[in-house]
Amino acid sequence: MVLQRQSRQSAARRAAERGALGAIVAARRQELGLSQTELGDLAGVSYRIVHHLESGRSDTSLKRVVAVLETLGLHLTIERGAAPEVRAGCDIATQFNLEAVTAPPAGPPSQAAP
């Protein structure tokens, strides 16, 4: 059995193991020749945050994720998905007495008839 160093694994395999965001961050960091510690220092976060992000842990704050991405010259884009409803977490839904809220249909806004 031949073992490959993790850095030589295919990007697709890393993405499957870590999640796409972790694989992208790791690939860009390696492309720039930075260690996790160096990237953390440049981004103003600990190397543990970089390690957690690259390994696919989902408990890293968005603020820290954005700091790492900006340091690497990357940005995060949020797009509206295909889900026809907005979902709220239990605490928020209870606090505001919400159920699933149906989102307006995608596409250009309709214009009122004169």
Automatic annotation (TrEMBL):
Chain segments annotated as coiled-coil in the UniProt record: none
Gene3D superfamilies in alphabetical order: lambda repressor-like DNA-binding domains
Sequence ranges assigned to domain HTH cro/C1-type in this UniProt record: 25-80
Organism: Demequina lutea
Listed name of the protein: Transcriptional regulator with XRE-family HTH domain
SMART domains: HTH_XRE
Molecular function GO terms recorded: DNA binding
InterPro entries for the chain: Cro/C1-type_HTH, Lambda_DNA-bd_dom_sf
Domain of life where this protein originates: Bacteria
